[in-house]
Amino acid sequence: MGNQSLARLYMENLDVRVTSMGYNQVWTDWRELDYTPDFNKFYLICDGEGWLKIGDSEFSPKPGQWFLMPHGVKQSYSYTSGPRYTKYWCHFTARIGDRNLFDLIQTPLYVDTKNDSEAIRLFRELLDSDAAASISGPLLVKSAMLRLVAYYIEHAVSSEDSLHRSTEPEPLEQVISYIQSSYRHNLTITDLAEKAHLHPNYFIRVFKRQFGISPIQYIKKRRLEEAKLLLVTTNLPLSEIGDRIGISDISYLSRIFKESTGFSPTAYRMTFNSHQTVSP
């Protein structure tokens, strides 16, 4: 399974929470050394000078640079003798199951926005959403935070080759690859657990902790993805599509398809490919 495909699986199950945010100039006593936060931080430097240390890497961030300071990594920061930093910033968690996103994928620790107005607009949107008094305010904050994470990842990762997994357990990656190639067959938890060399009950917990979804849910999701593709690219009857994806019970397939998409298989085919000739 490619790095990008695995990362997309993570993104589908990502949950973000913002704990604090702001836009301000730091004080002359802005300084903390060798601490390890239990949240991630974004700093978008707008002006001024200062110093950061993230893990073993030291930086003197420049205006336009957007830094990621990940959860669980020892870090330091300090004001220096020059003009004080003015920055947009936020503290947040980004989790798949109970794992931190940036433990699962490894990106560069900063991107150069080249003073891109879109980066500033996204931080402003986050701050404005937090100030909203409406009942949907928390949803607006979460939506704005997801867009910030998406912008950072898209600009930090130029290609699949530059996207690295940080702590991906090899056995689970093998299980995902096996499901991708064998979802048409009758896959059992026992079989999958054996491939991961884990007890079935423990395997289920580890899988969900890693990917934010159970093995059975992932198999069903993969089957339905293939069903959607076959519905809009072929004229195959639903019974044959069911055989191809490993769900021979057509009434069950129709039910879970509608639960997942809001469409019956026939309606989905007619809606998303009007050029297909659909059998009644």
Textual characterization of the structure:
With 280 residues, the chain is of the alpha+beta class. The chain is 46% helix and 22% strand. The chain is built from eleven helices and twelve strands. Helix 3 (117-131) packs antiparallel against helix 4 and helix 8 packs antiparallel against helix 9 (238-245). It is elongated. Residues 173-271 form the HTH araC/xylS-type domain. It holds the Pfam family HTH_18. Keywords: DNA-binding, Transcription, Transcription regulation. This is AraC-like DNA-binding protein.
User: What profile does the largest beta sheet have?
Assistant: 6 strands, antiparallel
Oligomer: single chain
Overall mean pLDDT: 88
Q: Approximately how much helix is present in the residues?
A: 40-55%
The separation of the N and C termini measures 38 Å
Q: Which strand-content bin applies to the residues?
A: 15-25%
- Globally, the shape reads elongated
Task: Give the topology string: H per helix, E per strand.
Answer: HEEEEEEEEEHEEHHEHHHHHHH
Runs in which pLDDT lies below 50 for 5 or more consecutive residues are 275-280
SS class: alpha+beta
Please provide the count of β strands.
12
What is the alpha-carbon Rg in Å?
23 Å
Total of helices: 11
